[in-house]
Amino acid sequence: MKPDSDRPDAIERAHLEDPGDASHVMHRYPADPEFAGLLQRFWIPVWSVPPGSGAPQRVLQYPVSLIVVAADHARFYGVVSGLSTTTLTGTGWAVGVLCAPAAGFLVSRGSMTRYTDRHVDVREVLGGAGEQLATRVRAAMAPDPADPAAHAAAMTAFGDALRPLLPVDDEGLLVNRVVEFVESDREVVRVSQVCERFDLSERTLQRLVHRRLGLPPKWLIQRRRLQEAAERLRTGPVDLAELAAQLGYADQPHLTRDFGQVTGMTPRQFADRYAAGT
User: Fold this and answer.
1) pLDDT tens across 45-70, in order?
2) 3 state SS of 137
3) Which of 17, 66, 107, 151 has the fewest CB atoms found within 10 Å of its own CB?
């Protein structure tokens, strides 16, 4: 399977990677079409950080669950409502799969509200299949974590563990479409627009998104806005008042407030950090 990009370490909009961070190489691969609606893509970081140092990886996570296997842990992650930060140390690797919005409920066999802002051992949700998954991935990656053949074997192990969840149920397909609609259309700035598009009452939409993702529909809109803001600020220069208007904010202070609450930086501080390459 070929990587998603000719540059395996290309930054994507959710990853607030510091300029000049050479701590790791990121390999990304699309999920096999067999898993459409359940899995989106794999990411495989391989890192080496000098002794005594750490390389924080900050992510504005997409509205989906994750399954990650590394040498020392195997975890199922619910959606992180704020900023997700993982600090890389030493040398290591991980194999993760970005699930589709529908998948979390199927993996965990219940409401995703139980996993918002938390993770559990993969065996808690997949049982013996989770343990076998971790064993197979570690066996594949141990000889050479940068080897594409190792990546292929690890992804096959994920597929074997998750294939029993297919086919995706109708409600899962609906939440996939809801998330795709919000993420792909900048004009979506109100929950009422989502309700109108899918002919759902606000109460029904709230229940659907809360059950399948663990967060409210309003959060979906805010997260897309913040990811787009970070992407635009990274490639700047940007007129903040114009950016706020384009993202559907009432004014620049509202954008600054939302961005600062989640990232810990104002948009200007974020832009300056990237422009300075620090």
Assistant:
1) 999 999 988 888 888 889 999 999 99
2) helix
3) 17
Per-residue pLDDT, averaged over 132-156, amounts to: 98
On the question of pLDDT at 157 being above 50, the answer is yes
Distances (CA, A) of 144 to 92, 119, 150, 207: 11, 27, 7, 45
Q: State the first-to-last Cα distance of the chain, in angstroms, to the nearest integer.
A: 35
The alpha carbon torsion through 65, 68, 73, 79 (nearest 10 deg) reads -20
Single-letter residue type at 154: A
> Residue 77 is part of which domain span?
24-165
Alpha-carbon gap, residue 158 to 214, rounded angstroms? 23
Domain boundary among 165, 182, 217: 165
Count of domains for the chain: 2
Proportion of the chain above pLDDT 90, given as a percent: 74
| Mean pLDDT computed over 205-214 | 98
Task: Please choose, from the candidates 167, 197, 195, 178, the residue with its C-alpha nearest in 3D space to the C-alpha of residue 64.
Answer: 178
CA distance 195 to 178: 9
For residue 140, is it within any domain?
Answer: yes
Whether 144 has a pLDDT exceeding 80, the answer reads yes
- Whether residue 16 lies inside any domain: the answer is no
Q: Which of 165, 198, 216 is the last residue of a domain?
A: 165
Question: Could you tell me the CA-to-CA distances from 177 to 3, 131, 180 in Å, in that order?
Answer: 25, 32, 5
Answer yes or no: do 124 and 97 share one domain. Answer: yes
Token pair recorded at residue 125 = 């949700």
- State how far Cα 31 lies from the chain centre: 14
Are 209 and 240 in a shared domain? yes
What does the block give as tokens for 204?
């029904």
